[in-house]
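Need residues for this backbone.
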């Protein structure tokens, strides 16, 4: 499985997102479309960006009863995205339903990855509000294992957890990791961050990078720097 850099298109509308992508003339980066852009512009934004030649990770984090998720995933697979996701907390029957829904008549399907615990959920909140008493690390690994056993392709996790996830679920199980910052860059609102080079070293398969690229003075150069550090190891 080839490593790649995924740019988080955290823009509020079509004009901003396409204006940003117009800056990339010679390369078509893999991009992540999240809830904000999708809910603002609907499925057309996915078709349009796909038509421009980009691979798309549609980050909608589905979680509902198995039948509903299965039907929704069938719609997403017809949108021809390359990767999408759901919450592992929806449990194995939902994850298996999602895979069925995603699978196209020709047997192909987008990659399906699971969110384990959101990084915004602290161990304290998990204990006090979700009534889960186990250490968060154990919960994340257990959710990842459920996802792997349900047939999913990987998880979204901190790059710092990527090595451990591979240890528990196998090297072929994908780790898609946000929380990336350049060594000389701003951390912003992320707390546990890693450089692209370090993420490569730990074994992430895909890094998801937002502001270090989208807010850079030269986004194309920032993207290339990520590719050099993470994909090429230079
Ligand atoms: O701008 P930044 O690089 O922090 O963007 C990271 C992207 O990854 C955002 O789209 C954010 O929503 C997403 N993400 C994250 N942490 C998670 C899951 C997703 O930062 N645990």
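Answer:
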């Amino acid at each position: 499985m080839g490593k790649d850099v995924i740019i988080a298109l955290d823009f509020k509308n079509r004009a901003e997102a396409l204006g940003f992508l117009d800056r990339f003339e010679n390369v078509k980066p893999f991009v992540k479309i999240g809830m904000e852009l999708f809910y603002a512009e609907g499925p057309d934004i996915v078709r349009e960006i796909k038509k421009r030649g980009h691979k798309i990770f549609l980050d909608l984090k589905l979680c509902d009863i198995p039948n509903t998720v299965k039907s929704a995933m069938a719609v997403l697979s017809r949108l021809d995205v390359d990767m999408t996701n759901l919450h592992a907390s929806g449990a194995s029957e939902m994850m298996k339903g999602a895979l069925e829904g995603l699978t196209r008549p020709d047997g192909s399907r987008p990659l399906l990855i699971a969110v384990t615990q959101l990084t915004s959920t602290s161990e304290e909140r998990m204990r006090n509000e979700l009534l889960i008493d186990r250490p968060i690390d154990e919960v994340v690994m257990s959710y990842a294992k459920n996802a792997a056993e349900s047939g999913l392709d990987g998880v979204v996790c901190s790059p710092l957890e990527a090595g451990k996830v591979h240890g528990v679920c196998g090297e072929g199980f994908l780790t898609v990791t946000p929380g990336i910052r350049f060594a000389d860059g701003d951390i912003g609102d992320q707390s546990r961050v890693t450089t692209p080079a370090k993420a490569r070293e730990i074994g992430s398969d895909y890094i998801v990078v937002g502001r270090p690229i989208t807010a850079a003075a030269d986004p194309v150069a920032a993207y290339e720097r990520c590719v050099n550090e993470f994909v090429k190891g230079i």
